[in-house]
Amino acid sequence: MLEIALSGEEDWPSGIDWQKLAEQAAQAAIAETPHAGLAVGPIPAEISIRLTSDEEVHGLNRDYRDKDKPTNVLSFPMLEEEELGAASDAVGELLLGDIVLARGVCEREAAERNIAVATHATHLIVHGTLHLLGYDHMMADEADAMEAIEIRALARLGIANPYADATGEE
After folding, report:
1. Residue 142 · residue 135 · CB < 8 Å
2. Which domains can be identified in the chain, with CATH numbers?
3. Burial classification of residue 84, based on how many CB atoms lie within 10 Å of its CB (0-12 exposed, 13-18 middle, 19 or more buried)
4. Interval 119-161: pLDDT, tens
5. pTM for the whole structure
6. What average pLDDT does this structure show over 71-80?
């Protein structure tokens, strides 16, 4: 059973059910991985998602990644790969980790892509969830696999391939 602990700043766009969006995005991402049981199993698995400012994400990115700029999404996994593999034997709650999204970066990127902020935020939560599960697009041999999982997870939610250009080509 997947639980999403959502927190956020009030200046994120209103009229969007951010809790539902976060739950659906994380569930879709997990469902496309070998860890699909985490979303539906009897052991509670929790992800903390924070919708915040560029300034807060900038500070986290600087402090934890030595990158002195804001970014769209940061993920902070709590479990190692072997712990994820043994999740079915776990007792109690599994804390998968934290995902943090930067409002300004998310809004600018959505505008550049001519898509809704909610659509882009969904993609970023899918992406962040995969990082919590050990996927790393910075590793050349994993980048294509992670991208393919993102595309399938977003398709589950009715969202087009974010990596295709305007003609539909990748």
Report:
1. yes
2. 2-156 (3.40.390.30)
3. buried
4. 999 999 999 999 999 998 777 778 889 999 999 999 999 999 9
5. 0.92
6. 94
Q: Tokens standing for 24?
A: 């659906």
Burial of 68 (0-12, 13-18, 19+ CB in 10 A): exposed
DSSP-derived secondary structure for 56-88: HHHHHHHHHH---S--SEEEEE-S-HHHHHTGG
Distance CA 151, CA 41 (A): 24
